[in-house]
Amino acid sequence: MIETSAARQQQAQHVHVAPDTCAWCWREQYPGIPFPECWSSTICTYHAECITRQQQERRAKARALARKRRRAAYPRNWPKLARRCKLLAGWRCEQCGIRQGDHYTARSGKDITCYLHAAHLDHDKSNPRPRLRALCPTCHGLYDCAWREREARVHLERVRHQTLLTRRGKARHG
């Protein structure tokens, strides 16, 4: 016997389900019948795991897409350029001297293996002949942070200069 929507609604009204029923279980058991708004929408362990898996899959896809976009910003011969940079540096960080593959302890106390980065000194990723330097992740982060601070100071100076020019222009014409 095939149950109609009206029959299912009537059945749902007479079913005594605990108010802590999972909203997802409700939708599976009573399709087409809205979940009672007066109940809190708790989720059972099974559906929580499903949702978590779906979120992880979405995040993994987003990370893969972001990685693909970042990769597109680099020249086609980037792997060769990066390897040559590290080879010329003797597989050591040019700032602190740590070797590729050495282990060190992070501030969090976690043991980390060092993998060298080929850092752009000019921060021009699309340049096919970039100036590169082999740096460990820590030194690369410090270098980039100093560069961003420098860029922020230059930007602030430009804004101040533009503001000053605008004020002088208004004073002359006003």
How many E-type strands?
A: 4
- Which regions have little confidence, pLDDT < 50, spanning 5+ residues? 10-16
Strand content: 5-15%
Structural class: mainly alpha
Tally of alpha and pi helices: 5
Q: Order of strands side by side in the largest beta sheet? A: 1-2
- Evaluate the radius of gyration: 30 Å
Order of helices and strands: HHHHEEEEH
Domains (count): 2
Distance between the termini: 87 Å
The main pleated sheet reads as: 2 strands, antiparallel
Specify the overall morphology. extended
Determine the fraction of residues in helical runs and give it as a percent range. 40-55%
Mean pLDDT equals 82
Model description:
There is one protein chain. Helix content is 53%, strand content 8%. The longest helix is centred in the last third of the chain and has 37 residues, at 137-173. The model is unreliable at 10-16 (pLDDT under 50). It folds into two domains: 5-60, no CATH class; 80-173, no CATH class. The protein is extended, with a radius of gyration of 30 Å. The chain is mainly alpha-helical. The strands form two sheets. The chain has a two-stranded antiparallel sheet with strand order 1-2. Strands 3-4 form a two-stranded antiparallel sheet. The protein has helices at 5-14, 23-29, 45-72, 78-88, 137-173; strands at residues 103-105, 111-113, 117-120, 132-135. It has five helices and four strands; from the N terminus they run H-H-H-H-E-E-E-E-H. A hairpin with a 5-residue loop joins strand 1 (103-105) and strand 2 (111-113).
